[in-house]
């Protein structure tokens, strides 16, 4: 999962990021509510882990603004505020789950998976571009009648392109979505993975779905004549 952690306590944020990265997820940290709001509005995350007592903008206000602006990314509130009124207020403002500190890391990971599953179940779990089918629940990829086996990185790249089908996804946006904000990934690394993905998705004899937009990034489209 691609996760956003909005947490002002540096030690807690670092522990969460390290633990989640070791579990195979990509975790990005924001130290205050304003930065968290900007990241959540402009980038795609699977779940937001949100503290409530934040500088500049509280977690309550951040959740309220996101829902008002139709940003439906699932939110798991993680906070020391454990009273029933606090929990009710958080859920009423649009949080999908609520955990109190101290907490079990294993339980946090399980709850993140559950929140993500509920979000996927609430939407169409299959995305189509031309004759390409992407099943978000099973992570199965089919083109025509052919099942395609992808690595985790290849699948993540394809998923981001399919979500934005018909629109250009910048190179930087792809790198940040797949590898995170805090890793130095060279653009030729992205190009190498895109080449591997295209070999599998666009074999000889098939209409090309993945296109390079020179100087900008990549896009996927499946209309006739593409």
Order of helices and strands: EHEHEHEHEHEEEEHEHHEE
Estimate the mean pLDDT confidence.
Answer: 88
Q: What is the CATH topology classification name of the largest domain?
A: Rossmann fold
CATH superfamily of the largest domain: Response regulator
* Strand composition percent: 15-25%
Write up this protein.
The protein has 226 residues and is an alpha/beta fold. The chain folds into 2 domains: 2-121, Response regulator (Rossmann fold, 3-Layer(aba) Sandwich), CATH 3.40.50; 126-220, Winged helix-like DNA-binding domain superfamily/Winged helix DNA-binding domain (Arc Repressor Mutant, subunit A, Orthogonal Bundle). Helices cover 42% and strands 21% of the residues. It has 8 helices and 12 strands. The protein has a 5-stranded parallel sheet with strand order 2-1-3-4-5, sandwiched between helices. A hairpin with a 2-residue loop joins strand 6 (126-129) and strand 7. Helix 2 runs parallel beside helix 3 and helix 6 crosses helix 8 (187-201). The protein is elongated, with a radius of gyration of 19 Å. The two termini are 31 Å apart.
């Amino acid at each position: 999962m691609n996760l956003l952690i909005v947490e002002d306590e540096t030690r807690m944020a670092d522990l969460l990021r390290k633990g989640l990265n070791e579990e195979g997820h990509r975790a990005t940290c924001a130290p205050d509510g304003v930065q968290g709001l900007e990241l959540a509005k402009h980038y795609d995350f699977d779940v937001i882990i949100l503290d409530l007592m934040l500088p500049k903008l509280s977690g309550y206000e951040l959740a309220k603004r996101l829902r008002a602006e139709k940003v439906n990314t699932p939110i798991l509130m993680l906070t020391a505020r454990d009273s029933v009124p606090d929990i009710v207020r958080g859920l009423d403002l649009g949080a999908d789950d609520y955990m109190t500190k101290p907490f079990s890391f294993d339980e946090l990971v399980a709850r993140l998976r559950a929140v993500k599953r509920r979000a996927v179940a609430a939407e169409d779990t299959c995305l189509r571009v031309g004759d390409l089918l992407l099943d978000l629940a099973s992570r199965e990829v089919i083109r025509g009648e052919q099942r395609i086996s992808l690595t985790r990185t290849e699948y993540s790249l394809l998923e981001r392109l399919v979500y934005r089908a018909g629109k250009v996804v910048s190179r930087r946006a792809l790198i940040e979505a797949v590898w995170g904000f805090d890793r130095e990934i060279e653009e030729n690394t992205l190009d190498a993975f895109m080449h591997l993905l295209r070999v599998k998705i666009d074999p000889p004899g098939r209409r090309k779905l993945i296109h390079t937009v020179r100087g900008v990034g990549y896009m996927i489209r499946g209309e006739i004549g593409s």
